[in-house]
Write a structure and sequence with these properties.
Blueprint: E1 2-3, H1 12-15, E2 20-21, E3 36-37, H2 40-59, E4 64-69, H3 74-79, H4 94-97, H5 99-112, E5 117-123, H6 134-147, E6 151-155, H7 171-178, E7 185-187, H8 194-202, E8 208-209, H9 213-217, H10 221-231
Parallel strand pairs: 1-4, 2-3, 4-5, 5-6, 6-7, 7-8
Length: 232
């Protein structure tokens, strides 16, 4: 079960609530309403709610939880120097910008125990000048491994990887991140051409394949794929 907070990406017309973010910066991609900068007590409240959500998922019978930190949502906004202009312990250096993610990760790990899977979907590159770099993303990946996550699910940061050329649009990024961690890595980004995805797994570039839009467009995608394999 993936747990997430939208931050300044929230559609306030739907939520009827004021959007919040690390800083009072309009979302650079979605151009939503101007968010309110979170106070330290509000940040603590959000950490607690991530833990509560993880515990609810475990109680509901899920094998684990995945903390969402990509595609322009709240934790991505903390990690990116474009949207995080804070001058306290949650802003400035990479260590500070990643502090909320690390604190949530450690708190969730402690709450759900070692018998539940803990994943982080990490945006390792903002794809925008002045944003989080792939080099920084690899550093955070290693920090998450040290914090005790079981699997790293890799994607992009502020900008979703929708406009990149496919298939396997994130292949170089995935290979780079994989070289910096020892835990299993999930790869995404138009991997529905199974020959390419299978080769990436065989070569150790990734460990698992994530498919979203292909299955939304064709719910029996896996069934059809297995039939193709059986015919070979």
């Amino acid at each position: 079960m993936q747990i997430n907070h939208a931050g300044s990406a929230a559609n306030t017309e739907l939520t009827k609530l004021e959007a919040v973010a690390p800083s009072a910066v309009i979302h650079p991609i979605l151009n939503r309403s101007l968010p309110k900068a979170l106070t330290l007590s509000e940040i603590q409240d959000i950490k607690d709610k991530f833990v509560d959500a993880a515990l609810r998922a475990k109680k509901a019978g899920f094998d684990g939880v995945e903390i969402h930190n990509c595609h322009g949502f709240l934790l991505t906004q903390f990690l990116s120097p474009i949207t995080n202009l804070r001058t306290d312990e949650y802003g400035g250096s990479l260590e500070n910008r990643s502090r909320l993610l690390m604190e949530i990760t450690c708190a969730v790990r402690k709450a759900i125990g070692d018998d539940s899977l803990l994943l982080v979907r990490l945006g390792v590159d903002d794809l925008i000048s002045g944003g989080l770099t792939l080099e920084e993303g690899c550093i955070v990946s290693a920090m998450l491994e040290k914090a005790g996550i079981d699997i790293l699910d890799v994607s992009t940061g502020l900008v979703p990887p929708l406009g990149l050329p496919g298939p396997a649009m994130l292949r170089k990024t995935l290979k780079t991140v994989k070289e910096h961690v020892n835990i299993p890595v999930i790869g995404a980004g138009e991997l529905e051409e199974i020959e390419i995805a299978e080769y990436m797994v065989e070569q150790g570039e990734i460990d698992f394949i994530a498919l979203a839009r292909p299955i939304m467009q064709q719910p029996n995608f896996v069934e059809v794929l297995l039939e193709k394999i059986a015919l070979k």
